[in-house]
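To fix ideas, we reproduce below a protein record of this kind.
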Amino acid sequence: MLKSVKVQDYMATGLVTFHPDTDLFEAINSLLKYKISGAPVTNEQGELVGLISEVDCLKAILTLTYHEEEVGGRVADCMTANVETINFDENIIEVARIFIDKGRRRLPVTRDGKLVGQISRSDILRAVEEFAQNR
């Protein structure tokens, strides 16, 4: 049954991550280089402290341009700090409910407060497909 399939079995690991003091344009360059729309922000202990997205970067650039300030800054200045996470041992049915109910595309996965991966809608679909093929 799908309720026995855990997030840890399908999550992505080896993520691109940033630190709060990462230069904003360094982060933008990495998002472009790796063709990703956002990435987790972790502190020195590996704890998730936020997410930085393309939208966060655009808002920061537009705000600075509007105020005619110098372009730049740090990831901490524009990241989203209040981030919903999912525990690594949660079942994928719960994650699918969050994706449906809250319109999320992906969620950071934590274990004991530390970032260990990320689960996306396509990861859930992959799990369902494998489950259906093995029935």
About this structure: Helices lie at 24-34, 54-66, 75-78, 92-102, 121-133. The mean pLDDT is 91.
